[in-house]
Design a protein that fits this description.
two-stranded antiparallel sheet; single chain; nine-stranded mixed sheet; elongated; 12 helices; Arc Repressor Mutant, subunit A; D-Maltodextrin-Binding Protein, domain 2; 11 strands; alpha/beta
């Protein structure tokens, strides 16, 4: 068995498709297919079920994935101990993040990470409704709340707050509520309830138990734009809304607090490139802690 084939296997498992894996490794799909066939012949088992929807790991494939990732982690650890860490700070790291954090905060800062580690390729993807870290849809996932189970490593990044906002243009027409109960007389903006991918996102009733959204949008950035455009009143991430002069923060004595956690598979625990990206995200977020965690005592 050629252990170099494991590199191709891992790329397919993490991308979930041949085309994405070929692009990640900068090789042709034909070469990738030949290396996979060679590996499957060597281990005597089919490792993927291939279809037009992509490549799904078989039961044997999942078993081999655990082995291949352990070997990869040991190799990386060994290189680091030998002072060859630079060889490992290269390749691709895919980060899955909530759309608001990913689009409004992480994306504008990826240039700084790329400048520090020019051989490191970072992919930023949104966490979807059916996202599964166990299926290797990302190397690092930024989650809201700590995951309860799985063979995972986790790191708390920081707490963040949400507040109720409305556009000045909306308030000029509809009037300003003076207490949460007044929201019953206003048009409300929130998430599409049956598309919530985490119970942690169900926070509007913490501002007012009677909250029922008239306009439902499945992304935090979409809700921000709707509220900014005068569509109604919404609960927005403070770090996204804090500097917008067109928005008014209502009921400043009330905030809701949630936490961002970085999560990755335990088999990547020795990966320096994973550690570098996680440390970068934590450092950048904590540097602007006051934007993320707006105290309820501040107006």
């Amino acid at each position: 068995m050629d252990w170099d084939d494991a590199k191709y296997f891992l790329a397919i498992a993490r991308e979930g498709q041949m085309l994405g894996a070929a692009r990640r490794l900068n090789v042709s799909q034909a070469l990738l297919s030949r290396r996979l066939q060679s590996l499957e012949s060597a281990v005597g088992a089919r490792l993927f079920d291939r279809s037009t929807r992509g490549c799904q790991l078989t039961d044997d494939g999942r078993l081999f994935l655990d082995t291949a990732e352990r070997v990869e982690a040991e190799l990386v650890s060994g290189l680091s101990r030998l002072g060859l860490a630079e060889a490992e700070i290269a390749g691709t790291v895919r980060v899955g993040a909530p759309d608001g954090l990913g689009g409004a905060f992480i994306a504008p800062r990826l240039g700084a990470l790329a400048a520090s580690f020019p051989k490191l390729r970072v992919q930023l993807a949104p966490l979807t409704h059916n996202f599964s870290l166990s299926q290797r849809e990302a190397d690092i996932a930024i989650m809201i709340g700590r995951p309860a189970k799985g063979r995972l490593r986790v790191k708390r990044l920081l707490d963040y707050t949400l507040s109720v906002y409305a556009a000045r243009s909306y308030l000029e027409t509809a009037g300003a509520p003076t207490q949460p109960e007044d929201l019953a007389q206003h048009r409300l903006v929130g998430y599409v309830e049956d598309l919530l991918h985490s119970p942690e996102l169900n926070y509007t009733e913490e501002f007012w138990p009677g909250w029922r959204s008239d306009i439902e949008i499945s992304t935090a950035i979409g809700q921000l734009e709707a509220v900014r455009g005068g569509a109604g009143i919404g609960a927005l991430h403070d770090f996204m809304a804090i500097d917008d002069p067109s928005l008014v923060r209502l009921f400043p004595e009330r905030t809701v607090t949630r936490s961002y956690w970085a999560v990755w598979h335990e088999n990547l625990a020795s990966s320096r490139k994973i550690a570098i990206v996680v440390d970068f995200l934590e450092r950048e977020m904590r540097r602007e802690n006051e934007r993320f965690n707006r105290s309820s005592t501040k107006a």
